[in-house]
Design a protein that fits this description.
The structure holds 2 protein chains of 2 kinds. By secondary structure, chain A is α/β, with parallel strands linked by helices. Chain A is built from 11 helices and 14 strands. Helices cover 84% and strands 0% of the residues of chain B. The chains are: A alpha/beta, B mainly alpha.
Chain lengths: 324, 258
């Protein structure tokens, strides 16, 4: 559905997007992930024919964004970061206007508008002025307008920015419902959102593609480097740090053991296992067999966040809300 | 250019004017000023004719067209210069500020359709304002028999002049995202195009002739007299075309400048 090859967008002084290539299949829901200023919005603007690429090509639904922009625009629904709303219009009037702009025939327009409003749960405010709506409602009005013409591809730029947790959850579940009929590409810098919603993840940073994979694959890649935190304590007296470390290193499948900290009598270690091997039971048995107290043993709560921070090479706070 | 798309944009823009106080405010001010000029012109006409009656013992034939219609239309044309910036300033600047330009630019409509649609809406509002002026003049027909054609021609002139300036205003509004700047810029251009011909009154150099030719009001003078000259019509049509052309170009430049 979406095919991007060697896409580069250069502004006067800086390169916003640097030689990005990726493909998105029909009906997929893809998370576009990166810190602020990574080039997410620029890429989306190229896909929606708002900006021309400096070099490289982008195809949406089989049409080139430079050669056949009209065809692309008919097949794409776009919700920019700030929903493009006219405050002095009524909700239904606005959605209808966008439908007309997208070239929908007038015949079943009213029905389609009602349907889009229904799907985005804004039927109850249909007759209200947009200016009077709360931020969450405005976002949903923007979404309704983006899907009213039933586009093949839906491009959502930070659809949850500035929403409260409840609204965020609702919007995401709405987006999940939309996938399947539509190919969805959504950008965000909020990681859990991607984990909840997307099948595929594209991570970019400073305009460069850092990773593109399915959620499952990323997860597997992660398991490979899984770190298990072990905390032990002597039943009596004190425990030698080196003794424990040596014993843990002997467990089958363990790659590396690093001492983390001592909490009074307790010693905490990070144990790195071999990819694909579940070493937790053996670790537990070893500790118990050595007659130590096993205080804690758990796989460190790694998620997309770790990969993300690693790939984007930034210690940037990842779940900082709001947009720039 | 697809007329349907143009009309969709135009309709939306008209709703924008009439759903907000803009249209009503502008029309009310216009009605007020226009009404005053009409009142003053008729008053002057009555004063003149009574005086002539007293001095010469009989009324000289005085023409309503010369004493009322022409000055009123001349004034209306100047008021137009002041109100046009207020009509056009929001056309594009507001869309840019609110980010709705992104919606238009990513919808399957051509730049020309957007520009012409918006300009058309501005022209319709301007014509509605002229309708108020026409209402004033209609009163004349109750008490006298002015010739209809010259009045229609001068309205045509006003419409053409307005349409041309509105096109220039649309262009200036497209250059900025700030309505105030758009309004002030358009006002400056309107004012300049009005006064630019003044030097030709005492100078006969080629330069001042060129300046006089550029002045929008010079071309209106013929219309106000009820004279339909193709030269003037072509001048206004080319201003319209030039303004719209620049606007479309400026829309396109948004893409590569961004």
């Amino acid at each position: 559905m979406i095919k991007v090859e060697g896409l580069t967008k250069r502004y006067a002084r800086n390169v916003a997007v640097d030689n990005i290539s990726f493909e998105v299949g029909k009906g997929q829901i893809v998370g576009f992930l990166g810190p602020n200023g990574a080039g997410k919005t620029t890429t989306m603007r190229v896909l929606t024919c708002f900006l021309p690429p400096t070099s490289g090509t982008a195809e949406v639904a089989g049409y080139d964004v430079v050669q056949q922009p009209m065809e692309v625009k008919k097949r794409i629904g776009y919700l920019p970061e700030t929903p493009p709303l006219y405050p002095d219009m009524e909700v239904a009037e606005y959605v209808e206007f966008v439908g007309k702009l997208k070239g929908m025939p007038t015949g079943d327009l009213a029905a389609k508008v009602a349907d889009a409003c229904e799907r985005c749960h804004i039927t109850d405010v249909r007759k209200k002025l947009i200016a009077k709506l709360s931020k969450g409602y405005k976002q949903r009005v923007g979404l309704a307008a983006a899907i009213v013409h039933n586009p093949d591809v839906l491009v959502l730029d930070e659809p949850t920015a500035g929403l409260d947790p409840e609204q965020r959850r609702e919007t995401l579940s709405l987006i999940r419902q939309l996938a399947g009929d539509h190919t969805v590409i959504l950008s965000t810098h909020i990681l859990p959102e991607v984990e909840q919603t997307c099948e595929q993840v594209i991570i970019i940073s400073k305009g460069q593609l850092k990773a593109i994979d399915t959620m499952a694959n990323l997860d597997r890649r992660l398991r490979g480097a899984e770190i298990i935190q072990v905390e032990v304590e002597a039943r009596q007296g004190t425990l030698g740090r080196d003794t424990v470390q040596q014993r843990l290193e002997q467990v089958a499948g363990v790659q590396r053991v690093t001492f983390r900290e001592a909490k009074g009598q307790r010693l905490a270690f990070d144990v790195e296992g071999t990819s694909g091997q579940n070493i937790q039971p053996d670790l537990a048995r070893t500790v118990v067999a050595a007659d130590w107290n096993l205080v804690e043993l758990h796989a460190a709560g790694l998620g997309l966040e770790e990969i993300y921070l690693q790939l984007t090479g930034a210690g940037a706070p990842a779940n900082q809300g709001g947009a720039q | 250019m697809n007329p349907r798309n143009t009309w969709i944009i135009c309709q939306k823009e008209l709703k924008g004017y009439f759903a907000s106080p803009i249209a009503y405010g502008l029309m009310a001010f216009f009605a007020l000023i226009c009404g005053y000029f009409f009142y003053a012109a008729v008053g002057w006409f009555v004063f003149q004719s009574t005086q002539q009656m007293m001095m010469r013992g009989g009324a000289m034939p005085m023409d309503v067209a010369d004493y009322v219609v022409r000055p009123v239309m001349g004034n209306v044309s100047v008021i137009g210069l002041f109100l046009i910036p207020m009509i056009t300033m929001r056309l594009f600047a507001e869309e840019k500020r609110a980010g709705t330009m992104e919606l238009l630019a990513t919808s399957p409509v051509r730049d020309t359709e957007i520009v012409v649609g918006k300009w058309l809406a501005a022209v319709i509002l301007y014509l509605a304002m002229l309708g108020i002026a026409a209402l004033n003049l209609a009163i004349l027909f109750l008490y006298s028999k002015p010739e209809v054609m010259p009045i229609l021609i001068s309205f045509l002139g006003l419409a053409l002049q307005g349409a041309g300036l509105l096109a220039l205003g649309a262009f200036i509004s497209n250059l900025t995202r700030n309505q105030i700047i758009a309004g002030a810029g358009t006002f400056a251009i309107c004012l300049l195009l009005w006064v630019i011909g003044w030097t030709s009154e005492y100078e006969q150099t080629t330069f001042s002739k060129v300046l006089a030719y550029i002045s929008v009001t010079t071309h209106f003078e013929n219309f106000a007299k009820g004279v339909l000259d193709t030269k003037d019509v072509i001048f206004y049509l080319s201003v319209i075309f030039f303004g719209l052309f620049l606007t479309v170009r400026s829309m396109e430049s948004l893409r590569w400048r961004a």
